[in-house]
Design brief:
Layout (H helix, E strand, L loop, with lengths): L1 H30 L7 H31 L16
Amino acid sequence: MKHAQRSVMLAIMVLFYEAYMIYNLVSGYLAGGEDAPSLGVLIAGCLLLGAGGIGVLIFAVRAYLRSKAAPPDGGAEPPAEPGEL
């Protein structure tokens, strides 16, 4: 259970970092100047970072749902009754 929670928290941190990188890319383009990214770099960066963000989001949702569906005792089966095989 703790592994799934760690995976979800890491995915959330990655999503925030990707949003930060997209923000810096767009703000650099809008600010203009000599070091500003070109339109092609802006489009490619937004597509790559956006696709990566979607992939991480899907992973986080799946990990969260898997952790909610797992039994709280870690998946161990209950002990068998005496006389059962």
